[in-house]
Fold:
Amino acid sequence: MNTKKPVFDPRDLRNAFGSFGTGVTVVTSGNAQTRLVGVTANSFSSVSLDPPIVLWSLVKGSPSLDVFDQTERFVINILSLDQVHLSKRFSSTAVTNKFEGVDYTPGLGGLPVLADCVATLECKTTERLVVGDHILFLGLVEQYAYERKPTLLFCQGSYLQGAECSVA
Ligand SMILES: Cc1cc2nc3c(=O)[nH]c(=O)nc-3n(C[C@H](O)[C@H](O)[C@H](O)COP(=O)(O)O)c2cc1C
Structure:
């Protein structure tokens, strides 16, 4: 494929991409042999039911990348409406120990599974692709749990809560 690279203003392009509303996840990894990492990510998407495959992407320069690579596992923690503080904590570069004061239990491979999430998906990395300025991780879901409670949403740069549409 030999297509010419378009030149866009990155801030403006980010605004356009951000028009697509999503949930909010904290993707965690690491164990006693490595160190724990957690990254707020809304690039999560479910891909396949059979086999159960999900994806998410991490910016190339992330200081957490080596742990995701070494561990070859990750946990998608889908945040509930009352977990905005976790989204802010795990997207901050100023917090030195992101897990301090955060409630979690060790899951498969000793990876941190955050408490009180709407859903948690424990995954084994099946593919890692370099795509532009991000690394795309695909993973097989080996264990999951969920609860029926309000999910935290994110759209156009703001945290939102969902409400059912009234259809005329
Ligand atoms: C709502 C939201 C969604 C985000 N989604 C992603 C994402 O999908 N991938 C990514 O690399 N960074 C994403 N970020 C930014 C990271 O959370 C942020 O850069 C964080 O510092 C990453 O952790 P690190 O410093 O350990 O890499 C998002 C931030 C917010 C607030």
